[in-house]
Amino acid sequence: MSRVCAVSLPWLSLAGDILRGRAPGQAVIQYTDRCNASCVQCGMRRQNPEPRSRLGVERAGALIERLASRGVRAISLTGGEPLLYLGDVAALARLARRAGVASVRTGTNGFIFQEHAKPGFSGKIAAAAGLLRQNGVNAFWISLDSPEPSVHERNRGLPGVVDGIRAGLPVFHAQGLYPAVNLGLSRLVGGTQPLAARDGEEPAAFTARCEEALSRFFSFALELGFTTANVCYPMHESGPAGYAPVYAAADSGAIMDFTALETAALLTALDRTIAAYRGRLRIFAPRSSILALLSRHAHGLRRGHGCLGGRDFVFIDAKDMRMYPCGYRGNEPMEDFPAGGARRRGREKKCELCDWECFRDPSNLLGPLLELRRSPARGLRRLLADKEWAGVWLEDLAYFRACGWFDATRAPEPSRMAKFERRRENAPAAEAV
Ligand code: SF4
Ligand code: SF4
């Protein structure tokens, strides 16, 4: 399912948790590692002969109830392909909401949208969307790799899926669920001309090409009918010491293997493009998070806030239902979701090993609030010491509010979002390359 968690924190319960000095707990639960797609970048592609698992409703349900009792407010039911088990996912969503989990997310590689010209397509999609919505799913993603349908469909091995998404989105909307398009940043964003820096190409020229490709992507998402978007930052399975992916969506293919210079250019372009499109499309990726990652990649600067993986956020593996700090610290299995005291003790450890958006984005958004709660003087000092980052962060918070906190059961309100759209020349906070 790519490494997708898409949008939405349980913002309604946010204030209470923050006042207690905690971030709302989040668990990414890999319900299955089975998949029917063939994405070249993913260890879970259908051609891979590895044995596959699924947690099962009974075991996963008991786990979710336990997580909820220990302060988890958001769960993400991911894969593999979660909708291979649509009934299970709906049952778990219902159980989670009853247990007090405020945000339940899941999504699809889009296979359910294939064969859209066959009779009964709309009814099938309406039934799936209704089941998810009625059982409490309030964030839902659909993966899309490229603005060029043929490139996306070839990579996924899912012919016809893009036209099916176009036909199926209004049906989802009519059921009261607004899916987010999920873009995993890779060279495929360039379409039939894979996005790669040319020999001798100036960094600024490559940044401009990235910007053009990303603009095409967001325009295409709007044209398909999406109202919301999420972005997965480029990550490769090889990483620094201590990095041990257990989530097989750690990407290994050449389409993910960006050089440091390319990564900086891509993040710069992403920041500018989001600034240009966030008035028309609810784009979850916070600019403050992108700026923090960019500063580290381009200049080795520490900006933003450390990851809450292993403290308030965890990952559960489909193979054996083991818990880890995240999908990328597989050498640090955990006994249980940390209770408040343990989480407070662990706050000194600040991991920045990877760019996993599922945890990095909410960590950067919540980090300043947690710091202000724990030590108002230090929190304020840090914000004042980097006013540029603080300004972008404050705007992100205002933007999230204008987007209804990314509750996918609510239609967008363009009049509230419009003021966040910036002209290209006014937009950039990021000027790395
Ligand atoms: S990226 Fe997602 S859809 Fe593609 S093979 Fe992996 S799990 Fe399946
Ligand atoms: S930065 Fe966060 S997601 Fe990445 S390895 Fe560290 S704890 Fe895990």
Q: SSE string, helix = H, strand = E?
A: HEHEHEHEHHEHEHEHEEHHHHH
Any ligands, ions or cofactors bound here, and which? iron/sulfur cluster
Strand order of the largest sheet: 7-6-5-4-3-2-1-8-9
- Number of continuous helical runs: 14
Number of domains: 1
Strand content: 5-15%
What's the CATH class, please?
Answer: Alpha Beta
What does this structure look like?
It contains 14 helices and 9 strands. A 9-stranded mixed β-sheet has the order 7-6-5-4-3-2-1-8-9, sandwiched between helices. The model has no long low-confidence stretch (mean pLDDT 90). The protein has a single domain (11-419), classed as TIM Barrel, CATH 3.20.20. Helix 3 (86-98) packs parallel to helix 4 and helix 9 (287-299) runs antiparallel to helix 13. It is globular, with a radius of gyration of 20 Å. It has 433 residues and is α/β, with parallel strands linked by helices. 40% of the residues lie in helices and 10% in strands. It binds iron/sulfur cluster (2 copies). One iron/sulfur cluster is lined by residues 1-2, 35, 37, 39, 42, 44-45, 79-81, 109, 249.
